[in-house]
Design goal:
Pfam families: Glyco_hydro_18. The protein is of the alpha/beta class. The chain is built from four helices and eight strands. Strands 3, 4, 5 and 6 form a four-stranded mixed beta sheet that branches. A hairpin with a 2-residue loop joins β1 and β2. The radius of gyration is 18 Å and the shape is globular. It starts with a strand and ends with a strand.
Length: 167
């Protein structure tokens, strides 16, 4: 049993170990620079890569400023050394939904109509197909769950964005 803040955990907290990787750190200079070799994939079950962005209006997916597609690819290539490692790409970011930014309304806007959701999912699928080996990934995926905490639609219009990987 492991302890957290004086409380005993009911299970082994080492079963799921999630790392967080700032994708822009690959391009930093000096002591803040990190490269892929600094990721201890042998001790992780998951790695959450920050961030992909969604372009307002077109809903295209692209890396956050200071990150690159090549960096995302290098991180997913860690699966060659740790096949069970799950690599997650977070869309948005710390200031993505801040007031008075171009990106603040994106999640609410893209979820507001069926056409906009379709446009976003099409762009997301194209991004994934272009930059990731979906055929290889699908071997490890049971289902996909797209979430947003910023849905601004009426409850009766809300649809679960979950689907089986073999869609």
């Amino acid at each position: 049993m492991w302890h957290n803040c004086g409380n005993q955990s009911p299970g082994d907290v080492r079963r799921t170990v999630i790392g967080y990787f700032e994708s822009w750190s690959l391009l930093r200079r000096g002591c803040a620079n990190r490269d892929i070799s600094s990721i201890r994939y042998d001790s992780l079950t998951h790695i959450n890569v920050a961030f992909g962005y969604i372009k307002p209006g077109s809903y295209e997916i692209y890396p956050i400023n200071g990150a690159s597609i090549a960096g995302f690819k290098d991180i997913t290539d860690l699966k060659q050394h740790a096949p069970n490692l799950q690599v997650w790409l977070s869309l948005g970011g710390w200031s993505f939904s801040d007031n008075d930014t171009d990106t603040q309304p994106v999640f609410g806007d893209l979820s507001s109509t069926g056409d906009k959701r379709f446009q976003f999912f099409t762009n997301l699928e194209n991004f994934m197909l272009e930059h990731f080996d979906i055929e290889e990934m699908i071997k490890y995926v049971d289902w996909v769950n797209l979430m947003t905490y910023d849905l601004q639609v009426e409850p009766e219009e809300h649809q679960a964005f979950m689907f089986h990987a073999d869609y």
